[in-house]
Design brief:
With 289 residues, the chain is an alpha+beta fold. The strands form three sheets. A five-stranded antiparallel sheet has the order 4-3-6-7-8, covered by helices on one side. It has a three-stranded antiparallel sheet with strand order 1-11-10, covered by helices on one side. Helix 2 packs across helix 3. 37% of the residues lie in helices and 22% in strands. Strand 7 and strand 8 form a beta hairpin.
């Protein structure tokens, strides 16, 4: 039998096995799922299951499960009125303190603040002008550039970020808005390992999309190495629809845009407070009386 056919068959088998395990994770999110129990679901030994799972998703099973729990918590905060302590137990945590710390570390705000922001529906105002990122005259650190390929019918905003973890979460180390031609540049990139991700949001961008990215186009996940010798690794990305084996996006979009705005203010004379270049702005309305 052709070795290529064998490899493709094996890859499909691994993909289906991991997808089956992730489905169980989602359905039993409040259960203490051990590595051994997950490996049995995947019909493999713990060692081989961990290798396969990481090859397919980019993450160890425990990290993926933790991300799923936080993503389910995000949805419960948005769509229910359950108390934070109840949500904590709903998603498998035994300590509210641990849950709050992990949620805040991923989304940048505590659970209660996240719910309050979602209910206030922050205003978004995004122009359709060319979203040209502007380079600093004298970048302080390393720079990298790349290209994002998007579907031919896509018309929207493409955010590119370099993250410290294989999950796009919290604020990126550095970020950029891709130009209409798909090119992007990032400056002051710290040395070490980073993971590149792109997120595509179709125009017109609605306020709730600061909190919901599960249907957004996404791309990347590859690691790059930044050192005094330059950048090693693939910096090109391709936007696609999300897959069942993709890790959740644990981002609060406003945090990413604020990070972008602050970097642009270091590169150019400051824009008006709260403004992003070329007509983009994020505004949080005054609390209602």
């Amino acid at each position: 039998m052709d070795q290529t056919v064998v490899r493709e068959s094996t890859m499909r088998s691994h993909y289906e096995s991991v997808k089956r395990v992730i489905a169980v994770m989602r359905n039993q999110i409040d259960q203490p799922l051990s590595l051994h129990s997950l490996a049995r679901i995947g019909f493999s030994s713990p060692y081989h299951f961990t290798r396969t799972f990481r090859r397919v998703t980019g993450l160890p099973p425990s990290h993926f499960l933790s991300a799923l729990r936080l993503d389910v918590a995000r949805r419960l905060l948005l769509h229910t009125r359950r108390k934070v302590i109840d949500i904590c137990y709903d998603v498998g945590y035994n300590s509210v303190g641990t849950f709050t710390r992990k949620f805040t570390g991923s989304f940048g705000v505590p659970p209660t603040a996240f719910r309050t922001l979602a209910q206030s529906q922050p205003e978004l105002d995004y122009g359709r002008d060319d979203l040209e990122t502007r380079a600093a005259d004298s970048p302080l650190g390393h720079s990298l550039s790349g290209h994002v390929t998007v579907p031919c019918d896509f018309d929207g905003l493409v955010c590119v970020g370099a993250f410290a973890t294989p999950i796009p979460q919290s604020k990126p180390l550095v970020c950029a808005i891709a130009r209409r031609d798909g090119g992007y540049e990032m400056h002051d990139v710290p040395e070490g390992t980073a993971f590149l991700f792109a997120l595509g949001l179709e125009f017109p961008i609605q306020p709730h999309e600061c909190f919901h990215q599960e249907t957004a186009l996404r791309g990347g996940g590859q690691a790059i190495e930044v050192s005094a010798d330059g950048v090693r690794g693939d910096t090109d990305l391709c936007l696609r629809a999300p897959l069942p084996v993709d890790p959740p996006i644990l981002l609060f979009l406003s945090n990413l845009l604020e990070k972008f705005a602050s970097e642009q203010q270091r590169a150019e004379p400051p824009w008006p407070i709260g403004a992003l270049p070329t007509g983009m702005a994020v505004r949080t309305p005054e609390p209602r009386a």
